[in-house]
Amino acid sequence: MSSLWPIVPPGATDWLLELCGDGLTGFMPPAMPDAVWVLNAMYEHEQGPTEVSYEEYHQARLVDGSTQPHIVRGLDLGAVSVATGGGLGRARHPGPGWRRLRWTELALRTGDPIVPIGLMPSYRCFPSAKKEGSWPLGAVPPTKGNLDRETWRLRNRGGVPALGTLMMSSPGPFPALER
Strand pairing of 165-166 and 98-101? Predict the structure, then answer.
């Protein structure tokens, strides 16, 4: 590991704690006036959401033996977590029979805010759309990760950004940087 990353003294990142607060899972940069979120895609089956959640489906499959528990270093992840239906990395269109579900559409339907104060846009939004933290099988929640190709195309359909504006894509908030 030290060949990839130089070893530094333990206090080398103290400035990040002072600037951003708790860094248990990473550091959120402070708010910036020109920062913007690009919301990852969500999808919904044409027949709409179902009454069955990803967690209920996963538990039923464990019972009938069609799937096995996820054991990591002796810990059964299913016993300490919930199958949310979300994923990491790049979102993809799930295929025929599915349509893009806009964040504003789901907010209007549920009465939930698009992104509650204190949360970042993620599968944790829209608590009214879920059962005990798990999304319905008829929905594909947003991933936490890379911008998907469809969103990139939709973003670029609006035209080229102002001359001299550097565009960046990241799973976290970044400001538009002036060149």
Answer: unpaired
Q: Which among 138, 110, 142 has a CA at the least distance from the CA of 126?
A: 110
- For 12-66, give the secondary structure using H, E and C: HHHHHHHHHCCCCCCCCCCCCCCEECCCCCEEEECCCCCCCEHHHHHHHHHHHCC
What's this model's pTM, rounded to 2 decimal places? 0.67
The one-letter amino acid at 138: G
Question: What's the rounded mean pLDDT across residues 52-69?
Answer: 94
**148 and 41 in contact (C-beta within 8 Å)?**
yes
H or E element, residue 104: helix 103-110
Round to whole Å and give the CA distance between 159 and 169: 17
Residue-wise pLDDT tens digits, 77-127: 888 889 888 777 777 888 999 998 989 999 999 999 998 887 878 888 899
* DSSP string covering 56-101: HHHHHHHHHTSS---EETTEEHHHHS---S--BS------TTEEEE
**Token pair 């990241």 in the structure block, residue:** 170
Give pLDDT tens digits for 158-173: 554 554 554 554 444 4
